[in-house]
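Run log, item B.
One chain of 338 residues. Sequence copied directly from the ordering sheet:
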Amino acid sequence: MTEAPGSGPPDGGERPSSGPDRGRPAEPGPAIEHRATHATLIVDPRAGRGRVGRELPVVEAELGRRGLTVRTRRSSRPGEATELARQALAEGERFLLAVGDDVTANEVLNGMFDDDVPADPEAVLGVVAANSGSDIVRTFGLAQDPVVAAERLGMGSVYQIDVGKATARGADGRAHTRYFLNMAQVGLGGLAAARAARLPRLLRRSRTFWGYWLAMATYRRTAVRMRGDRRDFEGVVSNILVANLQFAGQGMLVSPRSWPEDGYLDLQVWTGPKAESFTLLPKMFIGEHLPNPHILEYRSTRVEIESDRPLRVETDGRPAGVTPVTFEVLPRALRLKV
């Protein structure tokens, strides 16, 4: 996808039609010209197997060349990027750049929201992948290369896009909320993220690989009950995908119909054997795993998921608790620089 939000679907065709499952997409929002003079970089230097740390001087220099005065704040532990984002907004910063992978962007996003509304309605988020393999930038046609990304951010526009909200049960038994930009998963995908998070960081990118196979070895398909604003579902599943954007797994076109301005979350309920998450991989890279008789597709603004046994939940690759979980969309809640 090379178009920015507001310019139409990625293939140049029509958006999905209205109907009992598809809903009626919202009209594209207008682009807002954005010329910033200051930016706060919130960076995870370890992201992308350490590539982000190595590319950081290039990011800083290229943004400086384009007239941006930058202030860099480095994250050194899980959750710190959220704290740094909150601090920056409290100090009056209005343009935050998440430099890193999808987890980095997710943490910065969560620092920008409070009780489902932006902590500062004028704040703008930008995402610089810096060769980390970020999937969030792919939906918007943004480059992995920091030089190209800096040029785009220096002259781009701001769009109002949807944000996903997940409220799941935490380790303390209480409900906890996480916001997400890209995708969330319940079941096999959630367990894979949890397994990967426990592995040593020195494994770097291979943590995702080993996390997936560790999850495959122990995961059992489970009966779930889903209640939403458009339809309900009861049955045994291997995985549930809740998408706001299109790409996951470093380049797989997992949810090709997702559009971040339509006011809906796109759901995929995988009812087939768990091995399909592996056998369908070649097709997922080009979005041809859909339609599939073992994957129920529909859209919703809100869905509640319960299960016979607790299932792991992840948001943008970050563990987010277990079921029961409720997903909601916050329509056009985020100002994103594209």
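Observations after the first pass:
- The chain has a mean pLDDT of 89.
- The radius of gyration is 19 Å.
Flagged for discussion on Thursday.
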